[in-house]
Write a structure and sequence with these properties.
The chain is an alpha+beta fold. The chain folds into two domains: 226 residues, FAD/NAD(P)-binding domain (3-Layer(bba) Sandwich), CATH 3.50.50.60; 121 residues, D-Amino Acid Oxidase, subunit A, domain 2 (D-Amino Acid Oxidase, Chain A, domain 2, 2-Layer Sandwich), CATH 3.30.9. 36% of the residues lie in helices and 28% in strands. It is built from twelve helices and 20 strands. The strands form four sheets. Strands 6-5-14-15-16-13-17-20 form an eight-stranded mixed beta sheet. A hairpin with a 2-residue loop joins strand 10 and strand 11. Helix 11 crosses helix 12. 45% of the residues are buried. The structure holds 8-demethyl-8-dimethylamino-flavin-adenine-dinucleotide and P-hydroxybenzoic acid (PHB). P-hydroxybenzoic acid binds next to loops.
Amino acid sequence: MRTQVCIIGGGPSGLLLSQLLHLSGIDSVVLERHPRDRVLSRIRAGVLEWGTVEMLEKAGAARRMQAEGFPHSGIRLAARNRGFRIDFNDLIGRRIMVYGQTEVTRDLYAARDAAGGRIVHEAQGAALHDLGDRPYVTYVRNGTEHRVDCDFIAGCDGFHGVSRASVPKAALRRFERVYPFAWLGVLSRTPPVSEELIYANHPRGFALCSMRNDTLSRYYIQVPADDPIGKWTDAAFWDELRRRLPQEAAESLVTGASIEKSIVPLRSFVAEPMQHGRLFLVGDAAHIVPPTGAKGLNLAVSDVFYLHEALAAFYEGDRLAPERYSDRALARVWQATRFSWWMTSLLHRFPDTDDFGQRIQEAELAHLERSAAARTQLAENYTGLPY
Ligand code: RFL
Ligand code: PHB
């Protein structure tokens, strides 16, 4: 098989890149290791920056999001048994969209199918060859080996994918922070406790109230990194969540059976550069942020924005455009990495947080409540820095 861009990974970044390239007249093939229903069973992010919304519009994959998504003009922060609001719309005239990553991925598959896009599912053992000059990818499907020759490879295969691992160790610089705790997430068919997201600081640990729609809620609590999921019955989860929320929210919380429950470790990771020869790293393949700032999916989308621009410019005759991808993408990646680290530090209980550390966090939250300048900084970053 021959294509212009071989895309490894059929998650949100691979599918969006494939669709935007198609709209620019550039051919691609997506190789995804799992069956489609497995990709669509993952529950992940829920908050889209407006830049992400606009990218999905540009890709022609926004109709259902516009009908079923929920624009929010602010979030709530809480500490010491009281909450306050950060009004993005008032502060900077911007909003976010609450719409699940699972639905984004479903819509992108539909857009690719409608355009006759080539997506190979259950492509096993993908291997990247000759990254310097004439790249090609081999994979096995149903016991038969296949080969895709291409001009470029886009590594959109997530943190544990093969793309980053195919770059010689000495050619990548890695920056990493592993946080000493994890998030336990629960999805439940219950009405959300609040119209807007609540991020809560508490001496017992962080808690987050999020949602997917009027009848579907997503909640998270900070737990020790080595907690087995079996320890967390639904009752134990709801009890702990209630203890960490301001009383008003705790009293109105509607609980129910969990329909998904998982533990996510928290990590910041960046690999530089995001290019090696004719291979480009995109999204989680190149970087991971802790979910506190809701940036992971949004960063994957901004990487796709820069890479699509670079490849479109290349095929229009600007042969050096792909060389600029890594620097442009990394500038925004580091901004989001800093913001996610900062929000994580502000809201979580670290093993060495003592009473002093707790009061410092509470003082910073009180400052955010009082200072429009401080709230504006948060609003600019949370709603998404410009591309
Ligand atoms: P994805 O979504 O991981 O997709 C990568 C795809 O590549 C496939 N793949 C391969 N295909 C072929 N050959 C191989 N060798 C392959 N190896 C992997 C995988 O099957 C998969 O389909 O990466 P992408 O597209 O870059 O998108 C990034 C986002 O998914 C990610 O940033 C966010 O979901 C991060 N994240 C969250 N972000 C938020 O903003 N808010 C959240 O609440 C949130 N929760 C999460 C998350 C990430 C999680 N992971 C990765 C463990 C919860 C979890 C559990
Ligand atoms: C979610 O709804 O899953 C979600 C929302 C905000 C975050 C992280 C996760 O910061």
